[in-house]
Specification:
The chain has about 180 residues and is mostly beta strands. It has a single domain (about 25-175), classed as Beta Barrel (Porin). The chain is built from 1 helix and 8 strands, in the order H-E-E-E-E-E-E-E-E. A hairpin with a 4-residue loop joins strand 6 (about 125-140) and strand 7. The radius of gyration is 18 Å and the shape is elongated. The chain starts with a helix and ends in a 9-residue tail after the last strand.
């Protein structure tokens, strides 16, 4: 665990020599995620999970990019420990006209892998997952931002639809410089 605390300052120090940019070419993020699972009012099996996530984003220009996200969650449902991992990818649309805040929206498709007991399943299973939402990145320096994100997650287990709410907060390290599309 102590190595993680040394890794972040080392990354930040390494990035200090990177050139200034309007939009970074790459964004590497780490986050804490809270999930309210199965939130539809008609479901009796509502529960919460928490965990962490990782994302990597390539910005093709100053407003469009693609992001891969992976999240690992665990919690307690009906007295049993449950876990799930999500793997999603999709487009990200960013508004970079503000100095300190970059709002964004995204829609990502992928998979959710749930362990034994998740929503009562009798064996681990992998199913389709959709995550759509957005958030803001608050600039700390040219190379570091804090990301706040909210997503609606849709999955299907036991032939039933699950509506999930995911809230994340974390650190983003910005690297390189993306191609600009406007010349004003």
């Amino acid at each position: 665990m102590k190595r993680i605390f040394w890794l972040l300052p080392a990354i930040l120090l390494f990035c200090a020599g990177a050139p200034a940019q309007e939009a970074p070419q790459w964004e590497l993020g780490g986050s804490y995620t809270y999930a309210a699972a199965n939130i539809s009012p008609s479901y009796a099996s509502r529960f919460t999970m928490s965990g962490g996530g990782f994302s990597i984003e390539e910005n093709l220009n100053d407003w469009f990019g693609g992001r891969f996200e992976m999240t690992a969650l665990s919690g307690t449902e009906a007295g049993s420990n449950v876990n799930a991992q999500t793997y999603t990818f999709g487009p990200v649309f960013s508004y970079r006209k503000l100095d300190l805040v970059t709002p964004f929206a995204h829609a990502q498709l992928g998979a959710i892998h749930a362990g034994l007991g998740y929503l009562g399943i009798s064996a681990p299973a992998t199913r389709f997952d959709l995550a759509a939402g957005g958030g803001v990145e608050v600039t700390v320096s040219k190379y570091v931002a804090v990301r706040f994100q909210g997503d609606y997650g849709l999955s299907h287990f036991l032939n039933l639809r699950q509506n999930n709410l995911l809230i994340s907060a974390g650190i983003v390290v910005r690297l390189g410089s993306a191609r600009r599309t406007n010349s004003y």
